[in-house]
Structure formats: C-alpha cells, structure tokens
Write a structure and sequence with these properties.
Blueprint (H helix, E strand, L loop, with lengths): L6 H24 L3 H20 L5
Length: about 60
C-alpha cells in the first residue's frame, strides 16, 4: 500500500509556480534598472529643453 498524498502540499506548490511565472513575466514587462529610468528621464528633459529653445517670441 502506498503512502497517502498530501494534497495541500501540491496545491501550494502549484500556487508558488504560478506566482513565480507571473513575477517573471512582470520582470520582463516592467523591469528596468534605475540607470535606464534615469537615462530616459534625462533624455526627455533634454528634448523638452531643446524644443523650448527653438520657440519664437511673439
């Protein structure tokens, strides 16, 4: 006769695996380093400044 199977353990393992898969997907979608975010922010600020410098006064 085999040992009884603990269904709670399998349920929890499945939930952990699903949570890990969702976290991995979010890391791919939203995961950017602080340096990348700072670089984008600096580039956007530079672009806004460049556009403001080319405005004509009326």
């Amino acid at each position: 006769m085999e040992k009884p199977v603990n269904l709670n353990r399998y349920r929890k393992e499945k939930a952990r695996a699903e949570k890990k898969a969702r976290a991995d997907q979010n890391a791919v979608t939203f995961g950017r380093t602080k340096a990348e975010k700072g670089l984008d922010k600096a580039r956007n600020a530079q672009e806004v400044k460049r556009l403001d410098e080319h405005k004509r006064d009326e």
